[in-house]
Design goal:
This protein has 193 residues and is α/β, with parallel strands linked by helices. The protein has 7 helices and 6 strands. It has one domain (3-186): Mannitol-specific EII, Chain A, CATH 3.40.930.10. Strands 1, 2, 3, 4, 5 and 6 form a 6-stranded mixed beta sheet that branches. The longest helix is centred in the last third of the chain and has 20 residues, at 167-186. It is globular and about 45 Å long.
Length: 193
């Protein structure tokens, strides 16, 4: 898997103007509309789902371990495969991270409601590629000034893709599968994907 498989280049924002968490969600969702990833009439519904998900628990990972990254997510029937917007905040934004550190990198995932495996592959790829302490990609992305520069950094990272499977990515994948299983059981669907 490559970053270019799911990050929409026209939904890359090197200079977030939002100053709070809801503003980030709105600005990034609008970038997906502008990039053609979601329809304008779906915007409010997707933003509501993003806010509801953040109310369940922050999707941010601040400080040294998390490297100041957040992965806001929503599922929506209007998308056929997981799409991602990427945004950078030079100042950092309070996104309710567990260590109260500001978040600088945002990867917003919008996934289909009926293809959980697609979302899992994308979140695993993201976390595996961004969480490694020896990886300079997050810092490089924070310093990039243009959409094209960010995309070039992502392409370079893809061409140097020699990262081994990360325990954190395995944890995220396992927890996500458990969440899907619990939801399926709760919905009495009987089908666990």
């Amino acid at each position: 898997m490559k970053f270019s498989d799911y990050i929409l280049i026209d939904a890359i924002n090197p200079e977030l103007t939002a100053t709070d968490a809801q503003g980030v969600l709105r600005e990034m969702a609008q970038s997906l509309v502008d990039a053609g990833g979601i329809e304008q009439e779906e915007y409010e519904g997707i933003v509501k789902q993003l806010i509801k998900r953040e109310e369940l628990g922050s999707t941010s990972y601040g400080g040294d371990h998390g490297r100041g990254i957040a992965f806001p997510e929503a599922r929506h029937p209007s998308v056929k495969h997981t799409i991602v917007a990427l945004a950078v905040s030079a100042e950092g934004i309070d996104f309710d991270s567990i260590d109260d550190e500001k978040i600088h990198l945002f990867f917003m995932l919008i996934a289909p409601t009926d293809v959980p495996g697609d979302f899992l592959r994308v979140i695993e790829h993201l976390t595996r590629r961004l969480k490694d302490k020896d990886n300079t990609l997050p810092e490089s992305l924070k310093q990039a000034k243009t959409r094209e520069e960010i995309f070039a950094l992502l392409e370079e990272a893809d061409s140097n893709n020699q990262v081994e499977r990360d325990p954190f990515a395995e944890y995220v994948e396992r927890e996500t599968k458990l969440r899907i299983a619990r939801k399926a059981i709760a919905n009495n669907s009987g089908e666990i994907v």
